[in-house]
Specification:
SET domain-containing protein, single chain, extended
C-alpha cells in the first residue's frame, strides 16, 4: 500500500523519487518487489 500511495498521492514521498523512478514504481507494485515495500 505504501508503494501505491507514493506514485498515486505524489506527496512528500514523491520528492524522494525522481520522474524516472516514479514511473518505475508503477511497475514495482505489479512485481513481487512490492511485497518488500509493504
Amino acid at each position: 500500500r505504501a508503494g501505491e500511495e507514493l506514485w498515486f498521492d505524489y506527496g512528500p514521498g514523491y520528492q524522494h523519487f525522481e520522474p524516472g523512478e516514479a514511473l518505475r514504481s508503477a511497475q514495482v507494485k505489479e512485481e513481487p518487489l512490492s511485497s518488500e515495500e509493504e
